[in-house]
Amino acid sequence: MSQVLSVNGLTFRHSSKKRWLKKPEVFSLGPIDMQVIKGETIAIIGQNRSGKSLLAKMLAGAVEPDEGQIQLQEERYWSVKHRVARKKADITGIRMIFQHNSESINPGIPVGQILDEPLRLNSTLSESERKTLIGDTLVKVGLLREHIYFYRHMLSDGQQQRVSLAKAILPNPKVLIADEPFAALDPTIRSQTVNLILKLQKEMGLAFIFISHNLGIVRHIADRVIVMDKGQIIESGKTETIFRWPQHEMTKKLVLSYQSLIPQQTLRDPE
Fold first, then answer.
1. pLDDT for 23-43, tens place per residue?
2. How many domains does the chain have?
């Protein structure tokens, strides 16, 4: 097993402005330490405002931490101490899938142009090479090469999800990060998307980090689970260990809430 991502002492501090008759809100996250192995799936769970989405954004480079270091394989991806500039290889090494696919797809630009942009900016491929790669990637996520000519309004929710996935894997990343990627999908499309991600993960050796409130999916696909509360990692371990023998009170609360819903699940839904 090879380690692809290492996080050490990652910290974020935020203070909102004081409002009338209210004290300023202060939210701090970390310090966070975690390691990610090639090909594994890690789920980050917790209640609202636990800091899990913020952690995902910091790992993806969308939010700058105040302290700590993120290392992608042997390359330092981010370090506050040294203010290391991220290289193109580092930027494309970690990619993010968003919850609302329609918001990440420009309605006035065809799919082919949307997928071409990250390649044009972050690779030395020629136009014909990029077009071939885009077509191959669309097929890989279960679409047709002809979908390069489609606009957002011509795509179903499931197809939009696949376009977002294609955009994420095009630069051949090492780590995929997703914040509630299945929440807006109906059960059938959700099942298809879960299976597709597992297939791509196996084929490409991707590490997958995802944020979810759906503990059914977490138990179905995650190798390890990280539980967060108030900006801290309060418990982590192998998925079955967390579900069978939760230690922290918050983890027990989350697991019991999931178990109370099990009889309502359908056989077709992996939840």
1. 666 678 989 999 999 999 999
2. 1
DSSP bridge partners of 169: none
User: Is 243 inside a domain boundary?
Assistant: yes
pLDDT digits (tens, 9 = 90+) for 100-120: 666 778 899 999 999 998 888
Q: Kindly calculate the radius of gyration of the chain based on its CA atoms and give it in whole angstroms.
A: 19
DSSP 8-state assignment for residue 90:
H
Is there a domain that residue 152 lies in?
Answer: yes
Per the document, the length of the chain is 271
In a domain, 269, yes or no: no
Contact 11, 30 (CB under 8 A): yes
Supply the CATH number for residue 134's domain: 3.40.50.300
Instruction: Return the half-sphere exposure (C-beta side, CA atoms, 13 A cut-off) of residue 44.
Output: 28
CA neighbours closer than 13 Å in the CB half-sphere of residue 93: 19
pTM of the model: 0.83
